[in-house]
């Protein structure tokens, strides 16, 4: 459990085949409602690899538990060694080869931070080759909900061009890191002076946050193609 209602899960393909994915993509998990109706849910890959997943390497996802949710019932019942059906990867919420920006603003709430964990190896490469800067603004309510915080803090310690800025809306941690902020990510964003000249922004998570940050970034002058969005909606 990454948080009281979020579980980290790792899967290996049972056919032994590799999985070629681009950080930022997602898989769809297929299952049935109790009445037999087929349905599916999408989960961003959290796996930190800078290569295609080889045979036996794991596909990692973070799953939010929703009270009464059919997908929640599926995942809560899973034990080690059991199987799910999935397809993919899909999606274009990815770092793009043609980008020439100076800085990435990565903004996420809840499990919307998952794709940014998968992007860390690629960001390391871009820092080495292009000298880019990265600011990751991550919004959650309490320290207990800081998903993958240890991974992001460790990456920041090893990469001076990477700032991890947790934004807590309800409760601050004891002895907070200097980059910790109180409030919502959309309110903290202005502190980092988004610039049309050198920034590309990624928004992932709560739809209200995504909309608010999208408008703020447009007001700051960022062209729409430089504001890349993915909304996470909890569904039962």
UniProtKB/TrEMBL annotation:
Q: What InterPro entries does UniProt report for this protein, alphabetically?
A: Cbr1-like_FAD-bd_dom, FAD-bd_FR_type, Flavoprot_Pyr_Nucl_cyt_Rdtase, FNR_nucleotide-bd, MRET, OxRdtase_FAD/NAD-bd, Riboflavin_synthase-like_b-brl
Q: Which domain of life is it from?
A: Bacteria
GO MF annotations, alphabetized: oxidoreductase activity
Q: Where is the FAD-binding FR-type domain?
A: 1-96
* Named cofactor requirement(s): [2Fe-2S] cluster
The protein here is known as: Ferredoxin--NADP reductase
Give the species.
Arenimonas terrae
